[in-house]
Amino acid sequence: MHVSHVFNTCFLLGGAVYSQEFLPTYESIPEGAVELPDITVELPDIASCFYPQAEFNGKSDSLFFNDGVRRIDFVLVYEDEDMKEIDKNRMFQKRKVSASLMKMGMELEAARSVVDEKLLFVKVHMPWDMLCTYAEVLHIKMPIQPNDLSTTSSTFNFLSCITKHFYPSEDLIAKETEYFTAPFEKDRLEYFYVKDRDLFFTPSMRSRMAYYILSRAPYEVRGNIKKFGVTKLLDGGVYKAAYPLHDCRFNVRSKEDECPNERYLLYNEWAHPKSFYKMQPLDLIRKYYGEKIGIYFAWLGFYTAMLALAAIVGLACFIYGYMTQETSTWSKEVCDPLIGGNIVMCPQCDKECTYWRLNSTCESSKKLCIFDNYGTLVFAVFMAIWVTVFLEFWKRYQAELEYEWDTVEFLEQEEQPRPEYEAKCNHERINPVTRVKENVPYTACGRCIRVSLGIGTVLFWIVLILASVVAIIVYRLAVFFSFSTRLQSDLKELEPFKEYVTAQMATSVTASIISFVVIMVLNILYERVAIWITDFELPRTKTDYENSLTLKMFLFQFVNYYSSCFYIAFVKGKVVGYPGQPVYLLGKYRNEECDPGGCLIELTTQLTVIMGGKAIWNNIQEVLLPWMKNLIFRYCTRVGSEKVIPRWEQDYQLQPIGKLGLFYEYLEMVIQFGFVTLFVASFPLAPVLALVNNLFEIRVDAWKIITQFRRMVPEKAQDIGAWQPILQGVAILAVASNAMIIAFTSDMIPRLVYYWSFSVYPYGDHSSHTMQGYINNTLSVFDIQDFSNKISLSYFRYRDFRYPPGHHRQYEYSIYYWHVIAAKMAFIIVVEHIVYLTKFVLSYVIPDVPYTVREQIKREKYLSQVILHETNLKLVTKRLKPLGGDYDQPNQP
Q1: What is the pLDDT of residue 419?
Q2: Locate the Anoctamin dimerisation domain: which residues (predicted)?
Q3: Which entry of 241, 272, 433, 687 is 20 to 30 Å from 469 by CA?
Q4: Torsion angle of alpha carbons 387, 389, 394, 395, nearest 10°?
Q5: Backbone φ, ψ for residue 228 (5° rounding)
Q6: Minimal CA–CA distance to 752: which of 819, 805, 656, 694?
């Protein structure tokens, strides 16, 4: 037996034991403390001196202290060090934290682990007075009276017999009573709607207040340096975990009378695969996990519902293209052996590539017609309007949730500073609003340096991404030329070019896969850099922190994910010269040309690979990894079936939520939103794939947070934060992007120009237009005698609009080229202005806040004013009456 450490006199206060030795900052013993005799304890039981230990009472789902009365609001977990390995500094920090918590009024109780005796679980309880105090500090809004405004009945009530099957069962999840609320004030408790003190503050509110205190509990003070907060102690390994409790097991209803079984209800009515068709119980999600989690799932559900309409139109556009691919005039001409079979095309590289016949690209030409047709143009315009309607109606829906969830007046000044910010406030300044001295962590010059360093680092990484894109382009060229050296150059055989087309497709696919791998690797590296930069900038509040990190990560992800797509859409094949004077990259490689079927097919391939690969990778990362970790942990810590594991230890066996919480969930969806909107003109099936993915994503995210992760600390949130302006920016960019894809990447505009300007059928009948002859019209002629390779041909063709040999301006751009360019620019300008005007009108016509919500907000403010403020005014008036008479009566003579 190792002895022992002899403590100074210990004291008992509020059911918790602590020693004066680890309360050096106290000037005196707290009032109400009871002195205990000197005690000597073994070091493994060192915790017993600063919080009492209690034997587990055998109730596996108990949410209370051992006395069954005091509710557990938070749990801290640490490991008792052995005598030989003990870290005295860690022990001192734990003592200080415990003393600070108890000094602030918290009650603590410890319990040994059933599985591992070295683990100690410290249960934290907040008494009623403490809850009232911190509810006022955090401006938590509480009910003052039931909502007395009549609700308007829906027009579609007659369909309730059908729609009720798509909602969670009201027998299990009852509809919550609506209340008018006001910020809680401890001195005016009698004006609030308090039916039961134990149920007045919900478990999520209690956990939020407990975490607020824990994140500010000091554990070391050295001069001007203050160290506090359980977050840093978790990072340093002093504590192994800190979390609020789930209320029961997700798949078994608790038999405890006090347990609301909300986790069980959420699993069965929301996360279980059998409930995939049901609407989300958002009120219960918000009640259990807090507003921040609730607003994420509300946004994801709304986005998915709106995607259904886009998916239907996109699928119809795809089916139209698929049905017309065989009847397309230009596709027929390419495949016709008398037209495409007689057209000999220029080699696509200098020495190794062979001549080829146009009808070799028959299959790729048909595939191109599936995505490049007039239906795509209509769909692109539809999506530009859809994205505006989506954002405007989301604002309305978000306004309703803000009112229902009491976040309408959630202002930035109500949000408390981050503990990391407060710990480094060692500079003084005059507050520009209050004109009072306050402490800040840096001077104006220091802030400028921090921000400049952050901007410089982000720009460096963006340049690094662009360098990786160039490297992949070089890879594509090198592999393409490598394939080309193996091809035969027999003009009479068509098989060599079929091999060439296959090689080019293989190059495109492998380059897309490599691009995806590079994207994933750079994401992992940049994530750590972005977090380090944001930590260095030291934002004041958590919202500021998340907004700063969101902007950095999105800028990086935007370039990382979309740069290859923008290259294929707007750069590749645009500057290649012509056979006599090709353009070279890095002075060595001939600039890359588009696939014979066009760059649109390659863009579609790139989008499919990235969207599909990203969805698969995210599901592996989000679902399979936590499940495997929990399975391994349970296997390594398995105990006999006769042992009962308490609620707090069951939760400890789950995976912890990362520091960034929902950040990656939002980022995943916003990147997907970009693919759906920015490049939808090239891939009308993108909304369909996104819809299918999101239907799984909602349930997978729900299953994950309910079954595989510890309960998140509830947080307040008014909206989706910095993601809202990012979505609006993507929506604006999507209009220009799709207009430019149709103008410069597809063959839509050249076809329209030919149809309306150059095609007259037959014999000058201007009333009838046709697309016959389009293929021949879009291919220029090059004299073989002007080419370095000599064969028995007089000329070959290439894709461009140039004058033929023998013309006085041979190989210069023809008049048709300038007509096409003018049409492309006119198309972009007209479409952009029409769509932007439509977006402006829609945003003006659709109000951001519904009328009924505005009325309810006014009513709530009025009641708050009457009940909480005018009542006190009347009390003051009554007290003044004996001194000055009746102030309610007119003046007497």
Answers
A1: 65
A2: 64-282
A3: 687
A4: 110
A5: -155, 165
A6: 819
